[in-house]
Specification:
Strand order of the largest sheet: 5-4-6-7-8
Strand content: 15-25%
Helix content: 25-40%
Number of domains: 2
Number of helices: 9
CATH architecture of the largest domain: 3-Layer(aba) Sandwich
CATH topology of the largest domain: Rossmann fold
Number of strands: 8
Distance between the termini: 38 Å
Structural class: alpha/beta
Length: 277
């Protein structure tokens, strides 16, 4: 983790004891306010959050409807804007939800216990040292999931890929002939990027949830790109003035809500035949 050296000048009062952590690269800044921009990764100030230390994520067991995941490294970037729209609409519709920006949490790469032997890939996950077990519990407890992802090299973000890799312990329940925890739940997908790769990214994400038994709501994939002919520095202004990204995002959330409220999870209980890899 990078920290400001004693010889470097702070952009605010260095006597302040408030620590700010860049959620992108981990740089630690001390001052009354976060810096105008990260000196290491050049991310803007809204990528900073208070506190240098990260407490392990836990789930309190309280039921809720929708798990909203921002899979971007940038918690307040363009994908985060789609998640903001989704979150606002969930509140407007009176739906209980929990939103998480993956860049703020620690999720280790999968240990690939399944590659050693199927019986070694268990739920709860053997790696109890990071935040993934809490997310596993919330996936099982919620009725629906909405995933937002950027497009990185025609695919989802590395953070989101690791997050999805860590759901293997839930999928493997079916291979171990144990009751599943996710079949019949509802999924929606939001993708935002600079140029090509939106459809592939959406399908890569959906394949993972299909293998977990989720049902994709009708018209529940929305993607918006700007274009390679534009400099990426103009993306932020474009998306935040784009009516289509608002309409499509709200549409996905609406469709997830409507299917979720039909309670198809209960209707399909013990009626599905798990077919997974």
């Amino acid at each position: 983790m990078l920290t400001m050296k004693s010889g470097e000048k702070s952009e605010s009062n260095t006597d302040s004891k408030i620590s700010w952590r860049c959620t992108v690269c981990g740089f630690i800044f001390t001052g009354e306010k976060p810096p105008r921009g990260c000196p290491v990764c050049h991310s803007p100030s809204h990528e900073f959050i208070k506190g240098a230390d990260r407490a392990q994520l836990t789930y309190d067991g309280k039921p809720f409807d929708v798990l909203l995941i921002n899979g971007s490294t940038h918690r307040a970037g363009n994908t985060g804007y789609m998640a903001d729209i989704a979150e606002e609409y969930l509140r407007e519709r009176g739906v209980s939800y929990r939103r998480y920006n993956l860049g703020e949490y620690r999720i280790d790469p999968c240990w690939c216990c399944y590659a050693v032997r199927a019986e070694s890939c268990t739920f709860p996950c053997r790696n109890k040292n990071d935040d993934a077990p809490a997310f596993h519990e919330m996936l099982a407890a919620s009725k629906a999931v909405i995933i937002a992802s950027p497009i990185n090299w025609n695919c989802m973000s590395a953070r989101l890929k690791i997050f999805l890799d860590r759901t293997t312990c839930l999928e493997n329940l079916y291979h171990l002939k144990k009751p599943g925890l996710t079949e019949g739940k509802v999924a929606g997908i939001l993708v935002c990027g600079h140029e090509d790769g939106a459809i592939k990214t959406s399908m890569d994400i959906w394949l993972n949830f299909q293998q977990l038994g989720y049902v994709l709501a009708p018209f529940a994939i929305a993607f918006r790109t700007h274009g390679s002919q534009f400099n990426s520095s103009t993306d932020r202004e474009f998306f935040r003035n784009d009516e289509l990204i608002v309409r499509q995002t709200k549409g996905v959330v609406n469709n997830v809500i409507e299917l979720m409220r039909l309670d198809i999870e209960s209707l399909l209980k013990e009626k599905l035949v798990p077919v997974t890899e």
